Amino acid sequence: MSRQTLREPTFLILTALAAGPQHGYGIMTDVTRISAGRVKLRAGTLYAALDRLSSEGAVEVDREEIFDGRLRRYYTLTASGAQVLADEVARMQANAAVAGKRLKRLAAGPAFAGGAA
Amino acid sequence: VSDPDALERRYRRLLAWYPAEHRRARGEEMIAVLLASAGPGQRRPYLADALDLIKGALQARLRRGRYDTGDIGWRDTFAVASVAVPATLAMTWIVGIVIWAFTARSRIPDPAATVNAGLLIPLIVIPLVAMLLIVLPPVAALRYRRTAVLACVIAALFYAMFVPFLDRESYSLAFLLEAVALLAGSGPLRGMRLLSRKDRIALCSAALALSVARYLLAFPVIEQPPSSLVIVLSVAAAAAGLALLQALPAPIGRRLIILLAIPAYPSILWLTVAPAGRTEAEFIYAPTIALACVAAALILRSRHRRAGTSGDLTSTDASG
What we know:
heterodimer, A: 3-stranded antiparallel beta sheet, B: mainly alpha
């Protein structure tokens, strides 16, 4: 599957949903937790991403419930969404592996000077 | 003085930047998310949140795509039905009471006997309980949905056993329909929010038109067969009601007609087995029969269209 690199909020939303169906506010808090407080999603960004991901078939509505008189809609990762996330994880792991190797070489000393992997 | 609704009002004002179909599909859940993430005592949206919403709204206007609401077309229709059914019942009841008040004198065998306690039950107690049972479920449903469902079932049994209306089985079915709508739908609150003020007026007017049509036909029949003018007026009122229901957001209006027609079917069944000489039923039930026929036509048409164009019923869920 050829697709562009996922933006971080999108990646984190898919990661949040990989744990199971979640409603909008649940996704927001989970994304904050996953990113150790570095990424704080706002509603406009979250729903723009959900609109895009659902139109691409990566997420879909799982169920709805009324909580405290308010509508909660739960979203779930589709098989296609899980594949997108898996591809992104593989890509990031490959990049991280290269980066890790180079950092090790850098730490080892003079061989790094001027060279490329 | 803190106004707990002020923040919600301001968020709604910001959501007005989004396209109408987006608001209809996502508005309520976005409000829920925004309020859940607000700080205690917060009265105004933070600037960053406001800008983020405006940015999201502009993106949504550029995309103008379809919004996945989980194919909840029927759930939304049931949500609207959980409002529409009691509204129709209440309207029918109010129209009935007005006509009853005008014709009460002729209904009491001996006007001098109005103080007779025996008449209190059929003339006052049963109608009052009947009205209470119409009002109770939708009010209860705002907070206690299971209680409301139970109230609907009790109401269905009460109407079937004690209410002396000719079409009491239709009333009973209407209550059962309300129970199903409460169970299967996303709630009357959602139903109310799906309807704009114009839609609500259309819904109440449709309920009023259908009720008037029913009574126009039912009441003269008790005394004498309806005149052709009454039949024309009734058919016109029923047609106006159906047209108003069709004016609701697509495909909710279409589906609502199909749902609201359910209580009409036993009447049709009853007609087929009606004893000779009870032809007045044909007139009494004409509006509901019209509703049932239109519903059947709509189902056939949508099936035909689905076969031809792979499904329109859900594709317009988020539109208009």
